[in-house]
Design brief:
Number of helices: 6
Radius of gyration: 24 Å
Oligomer: single chain
Structural class: alpha+beta
Number of strands: 4
Largest sheet: 2 strands, antiparallel
Low-confidence stretches: 14-58
Distance between the termini: 78 Å
Order of helices and strands: HEEEEHHHHH
């Protein structure tokens, strides 16, 4: 019988009493055990990130933790948040050239997303380089 408006929305389901629910896509029972479910962390921007025990680095050196970042992820967007960035045309126009140069050096395809994130990380690791560029742009000018 179909569920509808005559069903009691406050009635307890036998599955919820046992701690299992049925996965709506597969029809298979799933456990509501907090130990096996991914945890959800809310970021400052209000987005929700999921993490699980398998994602953390352990001292045993699991296979995923030993792989370089580009091989351990499922896709180029895996684990990343999209952020708007405003670039001047001359900076935007130089990105494909930079990606091409890096592809030539590595001898393989390099994702633009990886290049952009690596550029930000290098700036974080070397604020003196960033300071010099910002001074060229007029920061610190009296």
């Amino acid at each position: 019988m179909k569920q509808g408006s005559t069903d009691d929305p406050f009635a307890e389901d036998a599955a919820s009493e046992t701690g299992t629910d049925t996965d709506t896509e597969s029809g298979k029972p799933s456990t509501n055990d907090p130990e096996t479910q991914p945890s959800q962390d809310t970021t400052a921007g209000g987005t929700t990130e999921e993490s699980s025990a398998a994602d953390t680095d352990d001292d045993n050196g699991s296979a995923a933790s030993r792989l370089p970042y580009i091989y351990a992820r499922d896709s180029v967007k895996d684990g990343r948040q999209q952020r708007p960035i405003f670039l001047r045309d001359e900076i935007e126009d130089g990105i494909p050239e930079l990606v091409g140069e890096l592809e030539d050096r590595f001898g393989e395809n390099v994702y633009r997303t990886d290049v952009m994130e690596a550029a930000v990380e290098v700036a974080q690791e070397h604020p003196d380089l960033l300071e010099a560029k910002l001074e060229e742009w007029g920061y610190g000018w009296d």
